[in-house]
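Example record used in the benchmark description.
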Amino acid sequence: MMDMQLRTMIKFNGYWMAISWGMVVVWWTSLMLDPEQSHGYVKAHNIRYGGIPAMIFGIIWILTCATLVFGIYKESLFLLCPFASMFLIEFCMVLCRDVYLMSSDHSIDETILFNLSAPNETSMPLLLFAVPNMAFSLLALMQIFRYRRNDNQDTTLIVTTKY
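Model output (structure tokens):
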């Protein structure tokens, strides 16, 4: 009984993650594409956050969020991979950008991950909550999809290799 409740809670967390992330991506991409926010010249380290790259990444994120919702519904390990891959690519891009800014005499206030000075910035929740939550939620989803319930016994789990 508890196994089924835990499984439902983990799947709900995955649905919540995909839907909320998709809504944030739509909102954030629309802000980045706002013509009134455009200043014409974009520095090379900020090129991902405006114009065509922002639109392309926004579309890819929306597709990966939809794939994650469908993957959770179908309980497919293969369909979890696009979201995990895109999250890892985006996180590495932000990390590389911040390391570049720190090494090229820019202010720490321009970074996303290392700017811990302002309490209302998004860096602290990103570092302490969002990244581990995404990682552990995806790992938990992978585990419950890897182990399927045996129909004959309520408490026994069997390993399947079907993806």
